[in-house]
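Forgive a beginner's question, but might I ask you for the amino acids of a protein and the tokens describing how it folds?
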Amino acid sequence: MPAFEYEALDMGGKTRRGMLSADSQRQARHELRRLNLTPVKLSTPRAERSGQAIGGKAPRIKASQLVVITRQLSALVGAGTPLEEALNAVAMQAEAGPARTRLLSVRERVMEGWRFADALAEDPKSFPSLYRAVIAAGETSGDLSGVLDRLATMLEKNRAIKNKAVASLIYPIALAFIAAGVVTALMIFVVPKIIAQFNAFGEELPFLTRVVVGISDWVVNFGLYALIAAIILSIAAWRALKEPPIKLAFDKFVLRVPVLGTLMRAVDGARFARTLATLFSGGAPLLDSLVGAQRTVSNSFIRERLNKTVTMVGEGVSLAAALKRANALPPMLVHMVAAGERAGALSELLDKAALQLEEEFDTASTIALRLLEPAIIVGMGGAVLVIVLSILLPILRLNALAAG
């Protein structure tokens, strides 16, 4: 049965908006009048008007929107609202765009008798496989509201970690670019003009000054070519990292880098633990939960090591023993899993492990960035000092010659 978006006036003259299902626009208008509403505007959803299926080329739902949608659905379903009505209510609250279009399309499938997870599967870009797996587990266990709530929490936590990592790097990166720009400008525009004045006297320049002049000449003559080469190499490296063998080797190297490797293990460990807790507590079997949690790990080397964990758990080995043999995630997480298995509270201890790993990441990243920022400032100050000294030394020598 087709769905129609409507705008109507109630008995008090207030504008009402919503959606209803009817065989035709005529029947939809009749239904609105039966509800004491005067139709003002009636149209099919944008997804139907454009002729695009839910998985078409329209833009996907943003990650931030998905968190809000999941939280709203959890509240409505938990309050006893039928799923199709909850989907309609959330869609009407969303701004006109991809989110509303997708939700209305999902609602239609649910009204046709589809399972919620299957309806979401028609748009894999907006609703990733892990998201659908959690929803499917909730439908199977009969606790869809609780699973939606835990899913929203998981999405918020994962997004918070990612946003913190990105936000923390903005200032150091901007500072590094500014420092590089200042030093480059001095080398290109200031040093050559000042040194030209000294060359007019025909005196031999000090060693430090000659070194700076040589660097300045190289930057002026070959700096642009070096910049182009660096851009090309960066693009080539970015594309090379898409190749599984190269990415595997690179990710393995990253884990061995001091501080950075620890941070990467903490981030992936927290994401893995929280996802596993969400899936397992939602009613999914442990092996399926483990496979789903493995997909959220960003480091390909850790993900490959976890393949061994999945295989061993499938053969009957305990999760803690399998994780210990894989030797990919932080030891603290392995100990918490072992304690959770002994106490029969695996989900709760996984959540605690994720929280602790997130706190460790926050602390370590804060310390590392606080050390990085002054290091960049000191580096820029050192470079400027060298340039200033290279200019002052000839001046001092000329003053000495004039005084002699």
